[in-house]
Amino acid sequence: MLSAADNEFLCRIGPGTPMGNLMREYWMPAIRSDELPTADCPPVRIKLLGEELLGYRTTSGAVGLIQNACPHRGASLFFGRNEEEGLRCVYHGWKFDVEGNCVDMPSEPAESNFKNKVKATAYACRERGGIIWAYMGPRDVPPPLPDIEANMLSEGAHQVAVLFRDCNWMQGLEGEMDTVHAAFLHYGSDKPADHAPGTFNYYHYRQRDAKFLTVETEYGTANGAFRPAEEDSYYYRVTQILFPFYHMIPGGRLGEVIRIGAYVPMDDYHHMQWEIGTFNADGKPSDPRSVNRGASDMNSPLGSRRLPNTTDWYGRHRSDQNMANDFLIDRENQRNNVSYTGIAGIRIQDCAVTESMGKINDRTTEHLGTTDQFIIRTRRRLVAMAKAHQDQGVVPAGVDHPEFYRQRSGEMVIPRQKDWWVAYEEMREAFNANPVPQLVSTH
Predict the structure, then answer these.
(1) Rounded to whole angstroms, what are the CA distances from 432 to 144, 223, 407?
(2) Residue 231 burial by Cβ neighbours in a 10 Å radius (0-12, 13-18, 19+)
(3) Domain check: are 316 and 186 in the same one?
(4) CA distances from residue 16 to 13, 122, 269 in whole angstroms, order as listed
(5) pTM of the model
């Protein structure tokens, strides 16, 4: 279990907090490109790392991310006019460009140079692969965007899905490290007889419990959860955590599936869950089971229906299944074992259990077992990294190494005598040997 102090340290991400300052060193997925569909379209309210911001697209197509409150008298720029390369406050007409410069101040005398002395907080943005990325850190020249393969594909080769989560970001991320829960929460009603012998699913449900092997990497942590396959082999489910908040979950043969997720904090009590994945030409997921586990689960009948987006701070990407309606649990389906949980949708099942822990889980009351070692070691790494950044100015892992993010995860069956991490590294070379060309980034 964590101490109360470390629990606070880990979870609090607002301005000035050590974990928040750590995250500001990284580029973060902030807005789907299609949320700002056209030049001079209405701005969108964005909460990110505890700040209230506005995303907007200018006449030329550039994206800005600027403070909500006008620097003049604090009126919301959300009501502003998005016109001619800037956002103009309707209160007194002050206008700001994407860098936060005040470029027009019509309420002041023509000879005044006061506008040159006023600047709004604005953050650098880059657009790639259907995602608008934000950099909120201290550098004048931001680091490179991470080499996230799923975000570097040609148009139409991947899907980007976002889901609002009503709890602290770390609760979402920890759910990805707890891979043994899949055999219960998601597939507790499955039986080995339902699957062909020798398949991943057969090994998975023949033995529900698993042993965990965790390694610390230069970019985060990785885990192999293994079960017996045949007499001379083990079945592994390999999961990656990439700092600060990314994950790669097992689903399909290791090395063949291109997918990544992220748990991006809005504030201490809410976050956005991102899923980016690859799809075949026929529109089906490249991994047959990813309809139950990946991006498609969020925007398909197998996942949840989305409520219409509203313009308030917490109004984007909300599911119609939520805590207010008990995630539409069907007790009859649960009782009859049609569904282990009675809750429809793999991702919504995750939401139900992690959000039921409260806005910030009190980890001082936990009783962690052997299958929680992945969570324990990742927490320690994050806390240690944030403290090193705060006390010694150590640059966090991966910030200056975009190549660290060239990873994949998945499932594999290997000989019992073979080291699982060596086997992973061999299969990972499918990406390193044939890197995907990066799309042109725009500002």
Answers:
(1) 18, 20, 9
(2) exposed
(3) yes
(4) 8, 17, 17
(5) 0.91
Nearest to 440 by CA among 159, 33, 126: 126
| The token pair that represents 166 in the structure block | 């009503």
In the numeric block, which tokens belong to residue 347?
Answer: 């991702």
Which of these, 350, 289, 288, 340, lies nearest to 319 by C-alpha position? 350
Same domain, residue pair 118 and 190: no
* pLDDT (tens digit per residue) in 147-189: 998 898 877 777 899 999 999 999 999 999 988 888 889 888 8
With left for phi above 0 and alpha for psi between -120 and 50, is residue 438 left, alpha or beta?
Answer: beta
Dmax (CA) of the chain? 85
168 and 104, same structural domain? Answer: no
DSSP strand E in 74-155: where? Answer: 81-83, 86-88, 95-96, 102-104, 122-128, 131-135
Whether 192 and 295 share a structural domain: yes
DSSP letter for 145, please: P
User: Rounded distance, CA 332 to CA 346, Å?
Assistant: 18
